Amino acid sequence: KPHLVLRDVHRHYGQGDKVIRVLEAANLTVQSGELVALVAPSGAGKSTLLHLSGLLESPQGGEIEIIGIPTSKLGDRGRTQLRRSTVGYVYQFHHLLPEFTALENVSMPQLIAGVSPADADKRSMELLDLLGVGPRASHRPAELSGGEQQRIAIARAAANHPKVILADEPTGNLDPETSDIVFGALANLIKNEGAAALIATHNHDLARRADRVVTLKGGLVVDHIL
Ligand code: ADP
Ligand code: ADP
């Protein structure tokens, strides 16, 4: 099932002779349980593609569908609602709340969404276990290694059962060995949860482990052979 579809998406910035055409007719489909790596040089439009996919930005043309729902005619509220109920986001830096434990950080978005504290903690514990950081549940971010922090951030992004998981350089901050562990944990989670994942990374070794690798060329999303 396609969870994320971009159809002839057009996005430019600026105007006149200062216009920057980032996406001209970008097409991309990411299926449930599929992990697509996005590899492209700085400035090519990776963040733009992720922001569009996460409904943070709107394209000037084309259509973006999340779980089959076309978004071009949604208003700001509709887009925000759809984003909150379907998209999970992993940043390069974890953005965990320092005064809360790992478990609390993962439970927080669930509590905000109205899940009971008991159910939230149960779900959080399952995710932390799945990602190999269960034993760290009661630690605060400052007491955790970079790789552990990032796996907690991944658990938090997955907490509300997102259909689409977007990640901007999720291992950009980690050494190669830790990157490998974190990427493996993320891939495992995607399969387990049946989410569609689009992961921007500079790391070719990690990108090779994705189901598919794409890049951006001339405003298009094209398959990339590493
Ligand atoms: P990447 O994430 O691959 O580094 P970006 O998506 O951030 O690329 O940017 C793609 C191009 O669009 C760059 O040339 C960038 O300067 C430009 N750009 C991105 N966002 C804006 C914006 N809000 N206003 C003007 N130009 C932008
Ligand atoms: P960092 O500085 O650690 O890379 P930022 O806080 O600057 O992280 O966030 C990276 C980008 O991801 C921001 O531009 C933010 O707007 C964007 N972002 C946050 N949530 C989402 C989402 N759900 N979908 C798409 N982009 C998102």
TrEMBL record:
Pfam families the record matches: ABC_tran (PF00005)
InterPro entries hit by this protein: AAA+_ATPase, ABC_transporter-like_ATP-bd, ABC_transporter-like_CS, ABC_transpr_LolD-like, MacB-like_ATP-bd, P-loop_NTPase
GO MF terms held by the record: ATP binding; ATP hydrolysis activity; transmembrane transporter activity
GO biological process: lipoprotein localization to outer membrane; protein localization to outer membrane
One Gene Ontology cellular component: plasma membrane
Keyword DNA damage: no
Domain ABC transporter: 4-225
PROSITE patterns per record: ABC_TRANSPORTER_1 (PS00211), ABC_TRANSPORTER_2 (PS50893)
Domain of life: Bacteria
Keywords, ordered alphabetically: ATP-binding, Nucleotide-binding, Translocase, Transport
SMART domains reported in the protein's UniProt record: AAA
Family of this protein: Belongs to the ABC transporter superfamily.
Name this protein carries in UniProt: ABC transporter
Species of the source: Devosia epidermidihirudinis
Organismal lineage: Bacteria, Pseudomonadati, Pseudomonadota, Alphaproteobacteria, Hyphomicrobiales
